[in-house]
Write a structure and sequence with these properties.
Layout lengths: L3 H12 L3 H17 L3 H10 L2 H4 L13 H12 L3 H18 L1 H9 L28 H10 L4 E2 L4 E5 L6 H14 L5 E5 L2 E6 L9 H18 L6
Antiparallel strand pairs: 1-2, 2-4, 3-4
Length: 234
């Protein structure tokens, strides 16, 4: 049985997307897939997927005659992502649906053009680097990023920030930062010293600073602002 929560959690793990973006990727994949199905298959897909995702699989326009490559491209376009990332996301989502409802997966593949069977097979579960992910920042991009984040310093390989806080505020700060890092499918290093706590962000797979590291740095800044004042990020 396909459940919404499990589908989102597993899609987030496979795509390394935050949960809300993984949920959107599921809806996009289903919506584009529905365009490539005939009406009976669309109805069966809608009946099988969880309620929160059902409307995404609704389509009344004529069936698309596109290939699986077109399908991946359409997913990528809706996600504003590179084609290879669209392929990875689509395969991640559809392979999970086929895993949880094998009969549905077989039925959909049988009614799709040749080549679509690949879309229902899982991509590499532990790739060193996902398509479209973890592209190192250029030197110019890094300089601009540091100008917007004056509390951070570093180079193309890592960024660091040292935060001075009362010791009793360190545990709640670490808890929030670890939650944020987990949501981004990242690890953040930290070290305690007499000056406070130092955070280090980097993308180990490419030994560089990437856009995801900047997002994590911004979340750390927000956590420091909230926890340092005695609160928690909302």
């Amino acid at each position: 049985m396909i459940t919404h929560r499990r589908l989102v959690e597993d899609a987030a793990a496979r795509t390394r997307l935050p949960s809300e973006r993984a949920a959107r990727a599921i809806k996009v994949t289903l919506a584009v897939l529905a365009l490539h199905l005939d009406p009976p298959a669309r109805q069966r897909l809608r009946r099988a997927v969880p309620g929160p995702d059902r409307d995404a699989a609704y389509a009344t326009v004529p069936r698309s005659g596109g290939t699986v490559t077109d399908f991946y491209g359409e997913v990528a376009a809706h996600l504003q992502a590179p084609p290879e990332q669209g392929r990875h996301v689509a395969r991640s989502v559809l392979s999970l649906i086929a895993r949880d409802d094998p009969d549905l997966g077989r039925h959909l593949v049988a009614g799709l053009p040749p080549g679509f069977d690949e879309a229902f097979t899982a991509p590499d579960a532990h790739p060193e680097r996902l398509p479209g992910e973890d592209t190192p920042l250029t030197e110019r991009e890094l300089r601009a990023a540091l100008r917007r984040r004056p509390q951070w310093s570093g180079d193309g390989h890592r960024l660091t920030r040292t935060v001075g806080l009362p010791r009793d505020r360190v545990p709640p700060l670490l808890h929030q930062v670890e939650d944020d890092a987990r949501e981004l499918h990242r690890h953040v290093a930290h070290a305690l010293s007499d000056d406070g706590i130092t955070f280090t962000v980097r993308t180990r797979s490419v030994d560089a600073v990437t856009t995801t590291d900047l997002e994590l740095a911004d979340r750390i800044d927000a956590a420091v602002a909230a926890v340092g004042s005695g609160g928690r990020p909302g």
